[in-house]
Structure formats: C-alpha cells, structure tokens
Amino acid sequence: MAFLIRTIDFTAAGREIIRDRVVEQMSLTVGRAAECDIHLPDLAVEQRHVAITTQPDGMLAVTALGTLGFALDGRVVSEGTIDPRTGGEIALGAARLALAREADGTIAITIRQVAAAEGSHDALRGFALASVLPSKRAMSWILASAIVLLLLLVPVASHLLRAPAKPDPTGKTPGTVVMDAAWSPGALSRKHRSLENNCESCHVAAFESVADETCLSCHKDTADHAPMPRLAKGSPALSPGDAVQWKIGEALGKEGPLGCVSCHSEHEGPVRQQAGGEAFCSDCHKDLDTRLTNTALADAHDFGKAHPQFRPAYYASFGAAKPVRAALGAAAGTRPTERSGLKFPHDVHMNARGGAARMAVSLSQYGKPLECKDCHNLSPDRIGFTEVKMEDACEGCHSLVSGRTAVGGFSKLRHGDVKDLAQDLARISSGPRARVGPARQRPGQLGSAATPYRADFGRPVRAYIGISHALSAGGVCTECHLPTTGPTGQADLMPVNLPDRFLTSGFFNHEAHKQQKCTDCHAANASKAASDLLIPDLKNCRTCHLGAAAVKTKKIVPSDCAMCHAYHVPSGQWSPKGPSPHYRPPPSKAKVAAATARKAGT
Amino acid sequence: MASGAQGGATSRFSSAEKRRDSDHVSFLKHRGFRWLWIALGLSLAAILGYLMIDQQPRPNGGTWYGYTLGTIGFGLIIWLSLLGVRKRRINPGAWSLKAWTSAHVYLGLSLVVIGTLHTGFQIGWNVHTLAYVLMLLVIATGIYGVVVYATLPASLSANRREMTRAQMLDALTAIDRQLESAAQPLARGEADLVIAALAQDVFGGGALERLTGRYPGCATARALGGLGSGSEAEARVAALLEKRREQLAQIRGALRIRALLEVWLFVHIPLTIALIAALTAHVISVFYYW
User: In sequence order, what are the beta bridge partners of A20?
Assistant: First the structure.
C-alpha cells in the first residue's frame, strides 16, 4: 500500500510550494516526534498523535495514539474511519490532512497549514437570527415614530394651528383638525352623526371636557329636570369611586355629575339615545323625600310595587280659573267630582239600544249607534285627544238650526258665545215674518227687483223671550249646559272647563293601546253624569303594566319609568322607534308672544 | 442534629444547596408559582369588580373603574417593558432577575384581562384599539416565547450531536477543502456547479428560509442533482457533496431552531415600543378631546 504525502507550504510572497513523497507502508504515524512518518512541528500536536492504518477492506482507520483526540471532518473523536473514495480530513493543531485516493490507487495525504483564526467569533454570529432581520432597535424607532407622528403630533399640531370650525348641526362644515378621526372611540349616536367629521363642534378647546353650554348652543329648548340646586339636593350620595372620579374631574374643570355628558355619553356607536332605565329614576325618586323634604312628589321606584296613585288635573268647581289635582282610586264616595260645566251622561249616548243610538242610526253621517270615536279624535301625537267641538260632535243631533235662508239652505244659531246667540236670535225676530202663502205681486211691483217694503215697528219682545227661553232650564242651550246668571243678573251659561290633558306629568300613548276597547279602562258606559272623572286609576294600569323587573308574559308588560315619563321638561315621550322626541313640546310662551306681536305688526 | 459548630457548617451548606437548587428551578415555577397566583388573583379581582360595580352609563374606560383598570394596565405595561433595562443591570441584592422574569410573564398574561375589561369590549378603528391590539400581539408573542424557551432548547442540543457551532462550521470548511481538490478533474459545467455550492454562504438564506428550513435555492442540492456519476472523480465529488449536504442540514437545523427561538423577540420588542407610543397617543388624545 502506498501513501503519497503532499505537503503544501506558502512562501512569504504567497507562492505555493508543493513537496511530494511516497511512502510504501500499510500504516502511518503522525505526530510532533521526528521519527513519525508525517512530522508536524506544532506544539498543539502530540509526539505520536494518530496512526493511519489501511484496513483489509480498503478503508483507512485513524486512531489516536495518546489520550488527546483529533478532529475528523470537523468532529472531535479519538478514532474513526475514512472511506478513501470520498476522502476525509484530519485536523491536528493548525495542520489539515486531507486523505483521498488517487486514480492510481495510492492514498494521497495533502498537508496544509491553516490560519489559526478560523471558526472565529464573527463567523458564529451568523447563527443568530439577527443576522438576517432588521435590527429590533430600528424597527422599534420606525414603528413608534410613525404612531406618535400620525396619531398624536399631526392632530395636535393641526389643532393648535387651525382656524376653529363652527359647530354645524347640518354636518356640512367639516372639522379643520387633521387625522383626529383616529381619536374617535366610536361612532356618534344617530342624531349626532352629522357632526362625525367635525370633532371641534363639541370638543371646543384642548384638554377641556365637553361643556353644557356647547350642548345648549343647539339644544336651546331643553330645560333641566328640576332647578339645579334641587337636583343636587335630591340626588343620592355618589359611590366612593364615583365621588373620587368627580372630585378629580371637577378639579380639572369637568362639569359635575349633573352635566349633560354624564348621562348623554357619546361615541357609543350609531344608536339612538337610550332612555334611562328604572334605576336611573329610582336612584333619586325611591327615597326622594328623605333628601328633598319639601317636595310634593311621592316616592316611586317600581310601577308594579311603589308608584303613587295618579293625580289628574281637573276642575273641581264650576268656572274655576285653575285645575286642581287629587288622587284617584279612593273609595266610591270620595272620588274626585269634575265640574266641567257640561251635562253629558255618557251612558245615554253609549247605550246601543237607547234613543241616542236610534237617532244616530237614522243619520247618514253615523248610520249605526254612537261610538267613542264619533266624538273623541286622537290628536296627531297619538297621545291625547283633540278638543271635542260641538259643531262636529254634537250638532248632528243637537241641532241649532233656526230657519231657512233665502237661497234654500238653513240658518243656524252660532255656538260658543252667548252674545252671538243673542244676536242670532234677535235677527230671527226682527227679520221679515215668514210668508204664510205664495208671494203675490201687487200692482206697481210687477217686474221690479226691489224687495217688498216690510216693517215691524213693535218691541223685539220675541227676541228676549227667545234668549231667555234658550238659556233657562228646558231651553235649547241647557240640553247640554248649566244655566247661571251673569254679574248683572242676566241669564248666562256656566263656562265649560276641561283640561287639555288630565295626566300632565306622564304620557299615555292611546295609539299603543288600540287593541283595547275604550271602556276597558274608561268606565264611560256606566257613567250617568259628566261629573264622573273617567280617568283610570293605578290599579287599572297595573293589570298589565308592572315594574321593569317583572317577568314578561302574554299579559304582563314590564314597564320602566321612561314608558310614561320623560326626564327633561318640556319634553316628549321617549319611544324606541320613530322620530324623537315622539311628542314635540308646545312652543314656549315667549315664542308665542313674539309670533303674535309680529302678526299684529303686519 | 450535631454540635453548634457543625450546625453552622450545615446551615451554610444547606443555604448554599438551596441556592444551587433554586438556580435550577425554572422561572415559571419560581417560588412555587408565586407570581402566577398573584396574577390570577389580580385578574379575578378585576373580573369580579367589573361584574359587581355598577358602571354608569356603561362599562368602558371612562368610568372610575375603567380609569382604575387603565391606570393599573398602563403601570403594568411600563413596568413590564422595563425588563429589558433590568436584565442589562447586573446588581446584587433582592432584585432577582428570575423573580422579575417570572413576574413579567404572569403579570403580562393578567394584562389580557385588565386591558380587555378596560376597553369595556368597545372596539373600533382608532388609536385606542390600536394600543389594545398591539398589547395583545405583544402578549401573544410573549406566550410564544415562553413556549419555545420551554421546548426548543432540548431539540437544539439534540441537533448539535455534541458539536459546537464552531465545529459545525469547521466540518463544513473541511468538506469544502476536500471538495475543491476532488473536483479538479471535473469538466467545466460540473466544476461550475461545485464552485456555486462552495461559494454559497451557509448563512445566506433569508429569515423565511431559516424559519421553515426549506432552501429552494440550495446550490449544494442543485450540484448533487446536476452531477453525473460516470467517472470515479464524479462519484467522489458526489459523495463529498452528500456529506456537505448532511453537514448543511445540521447547521440549518441549528439555524431553524435558533430562528424559532429568537423570532418572537423581533416582534415582541418593536411592538412593545410601538405599544408605548400608541399608549401615549391614547392617553393624551383621550384627555385632549375630553
């Protein structure tokens, strides 16, 4: 077996010097000792370090002769085998012995010295992922700067440098602050959506909470629930957490827990403003009298359990200037008696077999017995009823026709004012007497268009008789009205006093109850006199309506306060659908006065 | 047990033993999961508070409880991010880095609860949700980091097969040297294939190749495919290339495990800094448009 030992050295100039020698042996020794077959003058190498032996199968066995191992193909071992066909490399100190078989079958051992710096620290850095990714520091800076610049510095700078945009409820004026949409924590409620692009319309100044005056600049008509000092006094103590928050908030200029935004929180999504729940009202009203000792309001917290009896406003005496309130539902004898000044037995009119019904059947405008809606019409807000007008509701039967007119119609007495009535009656009496037979032409009048000369030089006795007849008991007026005497002793009628609404602090939506019959709640068919106050009492409502905590069944409707009551005064009933407020408050007195003044001026 | 002198020696021994033992306790199990229990207690208290406290008009960051959760969350985020500062300061005393790391992991996880309750589950396209999402991403990468730190080091050492990283590179260099001489008899085309294989940097692949362990552009594999096996020289070069490929596979295995171990930090750290920026914008903007 022959080994070709090829030593490669470099001159100082870098030129390769190759020395070959052939050793005809079966095995070689490698070491620092001079007698070794391959002599390596390197202190890192043992005197006799390894032996390379040819095996019978042609493989080369490499064995460490001492305790120190060697590197075979990069791996530190103490013995190993090299297949001469593929070759192998032994590392001993700085020397690298590459073993491979030559074409002629000899085993070539090429010895090279390598620079000691190989496998340096720098090369190992390649193992770290950092060598192929951008640096964490650079990424951090880029991301953080982009966020701070776009989401903080740009909006703040444009806010500081802007010309303020005016609040515009129509939504046509966009805000002038750039990129502040990214600050919005959520969409505005449906009513405020038009302000979506104009944050400054509410957020007027930097680091200042949205102020009540900003809200009121548009919501001019919205008034407080009660005067602020009473609200504050009637409110229960805040929870310790809320108290701390408001203390800090108020110290920083936020309006207190009675400010607009503490209830009307915005940016909760494109939803309707929700009505306050039962707890919202009962927080104060469940024991209001303990804090607001002089209040006229009774405590309430759950419609089914704790709600005061209804106290409708009604006229308790004839011709009273103001309505009074009294609780319903008391014992039969103490029920409130209404003094409207009218005679109106509901039972007579509603009896389907009575005279009123027969009359109605015979009239084309009714055609059948009278129903409630023949007289009572829902007002446009679907809550109350329009005023019952005598001309529309009563006159079909209670006729005021006084005679025929010249053109073939009927003349009738005017309704509403006794003075008008007196004039109409006087005209009847002073007018030409009714013809008895067909008109006959006298000579000289033939073909003339002039009216015949007639005169009644007598005193208008018939007129006086007529008016005093009409106004006295048994007269046409007293069918419905109560006779009385005026300040100078003349015959007169009791003025009619009916409130527009009986339950003025709550809203009863008749439209929502149209499945019920009127008489289910209003005991009109048994009412014999107009003095019966036919407003249903609390118990009546509670057959269906219980508090918000009640379990909903086919019959029971859990009802929170907002179903009937509103918070702001004046205000309308809150409803889950439709335009809000459902009921538009009447214009304020000042506005009406201004409008009439304008009218009078023109 | 023994005399006083022996007792002193024993206690010193036992305290040293205790320290040595504690050196080998994972930061997750530090002091019997102390920080796990603290974090669980914190999360539970936050959830209970959220359920029991009546937050008007609705739970979100603007109620007093929301502000409290927000302040706790903000403090936690700042403190958690200070781990990077703490670990670079080698100082004695009670500032155990292991305890700090343990608290970092568990308190960081409790931030999911605190941050989510602070939002009141109101999510949108805005700077506030950006901060929240960044926080969740940071925590998610942190969870990934804990998992890989617990599982991958074993496979890293299995992959090494008792070789150091330097030895792996040396082995590759050794094979390369043999390849260079063995390839001398080859024809031009085949020699070029070998040159390409030799010239390719072992660390040349990108992050994706490292993470997947797939190197579609591997010149060694291509050389192996393009090499005939007619002559003895070719067979020898092919055998060497096969060895090279095996060595490369070991190095690439090490690179892959190392990349999987480290990649989360390249998300965790920059996103933490981005989170602090977004948090600053969140807090300032909320009070700017109060």
Answer: A6
Token pair listed for A191: 């009513």
Q: Which of A110, A118, A180 comes nearest B170 by C-beta?
A: A118
Q: Do B130 and A88 touch (CB under 8 A)?
A: no
Contact B1, B14 (CB under 8 A): no
pLDDT in tens, A336-350: 889 988 989 999 999
Q: Which domains does chain A have, with CATH numbers?
A: 2-118 (2.60.200.20), 149-273 (no CATH), 310-388+502-535 (no CATH)
Q: Tell me which residue in B128, B259, B274 faces A129 most closely, judged by beta carbons.
A: B259
Domain boundaries along the sequence of chain B: 27-161+267-288, 165-261
Rounded mean pLDDT of A5-16? Answer: 83
Contact A148 B270 (CB under 8 A): no
Segment A64-108, tens digit of pLDDT: 988 888 988 888 888 899 888 888 889 888 888 988 888 788 888
Q: Which residues of B touch A208 (CB under 8 A)?
A: 290
CB-based contact B285 A152, cutoff 8 Å:
yes
Name every chain B residue with its beta carbon within 8 A of the beta carbon of A98: 174, 177-178, 181
Please report the sign of the dihedral spanned by the C-alpha atoms of residue A581, residue A585, residue A590, residue A593: positive
Give the residue-averaged pLDDT of A344-358: 91
Give me the sheet containing A2-10, strands edge to edge.
A16-24, A2-10, A107-113, A95-101, A88-92, A70-72, A75-77
- The whole model's pTM is what? 0.74
Is residue B257 within 8 angstroms of chain A, CB to CB?
Answer: no
Lowest mean pLDDT among A187-196, A406-415, B159-168, B170-179: A406-415
The span from the CA of A61 to the CA of B162, in Å, is: 22
How many angstroms separate the CA atoms of A547 and A556, rounded? 10
Q: Going edge to edge, which strands form the sheet with A60-64? A: A38-39, A27-31, A50-54, A60-64, A79-82
At A592, is the pLDDT very low, low, confident or very high (cuts 50, 70, 90)?
low
Distances in Å between the Cα of B249 and the Cα atoms of A120, A212, A477, A565, B97 are 21, 72, 116, 79, 36
The reply to whether residue A74 touches residue B181, judged by beta carbons under 8 angstroms, is no
Of B178, B247, B270, the CB nearest to A143: B270
Set of chain A residues whose Cβ sits within 8 Å of the Cβ of B128: 185
- pLDDT, one tens digit per residue, over B42-74 is 999 999 999 998 877 778 888 899 999 999 999
Mean pLDDT of B207-211: 91
pLDDT score at A18: 87
Q: Say what the ipTM of the complex is.
A: 0.87
Give A275's contacts in chain B (Cβ within 8 Å).
none
Residue of A nearest to B289 (CA): A203
Contact B64 A245 (CB under 8 A): yes
Half-sphere exposure of residue B150, counting CA atoms within 13 Å on the CB side?
A: 12
